[in-house]
Structure prediction request, 324 residues.
Amino acid sequence: MAEIKRIAVLTSGGDAPGMNTCIRAVVRTALYNGCDVFGIRDGYEGLLRNDMALLEAREVGGIIQRGGTILGTARSDEFRTEAGQAKGMQILKSHNIDALVVIGGDGSMRGARALVKLGLPVVGVPATIDNDMWGTNMAIGVDTALNTISDAIDKLRDTASSHRRAFLIETMGRNCGYLAVMAGVIGGAEVVLIPEAPVTIEEVAAKVEDAYKRGKTHSIVIVSEGANVLTTELASALEQMDVGFSTRITILGHIQRGGRPTAFDRLLASRMGVTAVDALLAGQTDVMMGLRGREVEPVPLADVVSKQREANLDYYEMAKMLAF
Ligand code: F6P
Prediction:
């Protein structure tokens, strides 16, 4: 493989706290190794607009603690097409880019794979609050999102128990129940609804009513956005079924995607950014850096984009048991 002297970096898909920390790590590791680094704005969308610029060490100063991404991000329909991918490759070639680091979720890794197939060395870094990617125990941003959710649950519990209410709290995660399950364990929820384990409204109502009869002062129900029952539908059903508690809804929404990355996310993002550049310089490509056990290791991009991460139902059972 030709020597790597010019590395580009982009963030793509939904933003995640810690992306900036990772950009900083990529830029500084590349500069330390004598490479030029280009920041591509707005993910693949910006690449297709030819929107990129050289990044210097000082330009990534003061961002280690900032949520979001200074490069901007997007979900690009055009880049999903073969014509779009060929155009992107052409633009990268016109800047003599030797290699690329892609920071994002599974859609972003599919884009990375397309560029690998067109001949560009690419290493991916997993970043999405959903934690739905195969090949890494944790993606960048998950820990921060969980801390935000847990803080929200604590606050909602205060008001819930003062008024003897049930709170339905909706978490993000698309089709993956990871955030909801973990929120259930760390937030002490009575019930957790996730896409991977469908339930009926009657089952949920029975648990909430049971909690009321056992003298609980509140009931926390976590609903993953991809669950088989809609939060609003569940709320009106619980009101009608008279389960004891009156019901309120809080949809946490995009609050979960923002904020200062936690220490865990900063460390993970730094390690993944450094190892991604190291891997490229050592001649590796077509891999994503994954947290396996305590180590950050390369995993094949082909597996990341084709394999499904399995739901951890042990934690789901744990949340249920601890709700007693
Ligand atoms: O993938 C991250 C995520 O926040 C999902 O949890 C959610 O379904 C989706 O992105 C929301 O996307 P948008 O920011 O486009 O509304």
